[in-house]
Amino acid sequence: MLRYLIGLRSLPVAAALAIGIFLVDTLTSLHFAVASLYVTVVLIAAHDLRRRGIVITGVACALLTVLSYMLMHGLEADGAAPLRFAVSLVSILIATILVLRNVSANLRVKEVEQERANLARFFSPKIVDQLVGIHTPFSFARRQPATVLFADMIGFTAYSSGKPPDLVIGMLRDLLHLLSEAVFSNHGSVDKYLGDGLMAFFGPPLTSRRDATNAARCALEIVNAIECRNQQRIGCNEDAVRIAVGIHYGEVVQGDVGSERRLELTLVGDTVNIASRVESYCRILDAPVLVTGQFLEALLAEGSQDLAKAFVDEGVHVLRGCKEPIRLLSVRGERKAAQRPDDRLVCSRPADEVG
User: Fold this and answer.
1) Do 158 and 217 contact (CB within 8 A), yes or no?
2) What confidence tens digit (pLDDT) does each residue in 193-207 have?
3) DSSP character for 309?
4) Which is more confident, 347 or 32?
5) What is the pairing mode between strands 326-331 and 242-258?
6) What backbone phi and psi angles, to 5 degrees, belong to 188?
7) SS3 for 249?
């Protein structure tokens, strides 16, 4: 019966029920706490009202109980009437408190679900679980070391020229899915998508002792995944895709940027700019992956000598927009020995399985 009533418009039903309880409590001499039925009014009204409305409903029911008692008994104690009166008020109070706690809990669950959905767009599942459990804000401006990775498709304009829009968008979705999976599977975070590429970082907001190692594994996984996917494309008479990955390690500033209508948690600073320049320099050295000397030092400091052996010294270069020359190291397409067996992607996976 209660479920049927809730299926109707809750507020009119609650008001009608409250009036009915008031009339019964006032005009009859039933020897039980009729006003306790106001608990039902609070429960029904809670279906449409927020916390403030629930409090008002509870107070209104309590006032109706007091009014009914005054009309029936005045200020005189009449047998068990004061006890029934007290029981009714306590019932209304307890029901109101429980409903408020339930509403607050439901709102918190929705907030956590929304927060988790937003974070899942940029952070790996492991980092999302840690961030959701933090009750203090983490988006305030902070400065800390990080590994920044840029990945971009080479020759996208030429590749997409003359192709149907749905084919181009499908290829981009496939590429970005591949890049994102490589980042997330190595405990990295996506800062932003850049059309035919992305910017990722390893470290903030929760740094670890393996940030450079995770970034190196991510880069090698991307190279291997692209090679596997290109084998499928060649088998289907499609053009192969070339990728450029640039990595740099250094200090970054993390914080919210944007307007009041749209804020994004992002990284800024020289480390980000250098990583972007390194990725662009991949085209000049014809290397799928380029990293800086600072990144290699961080990799060695983490004890990842085996991964460091995958990188070949390319000497010192002056990058556009950089005042000082930077030592660069590359990973050629055939250098995959430093990967773990469980990091390698299966080349036989059909391309249409990607979401």
Assistant:
1) no
2) 998 999 999 987 777
3) T
4) 32
5) unpaired
6) -100, 180
7) strand
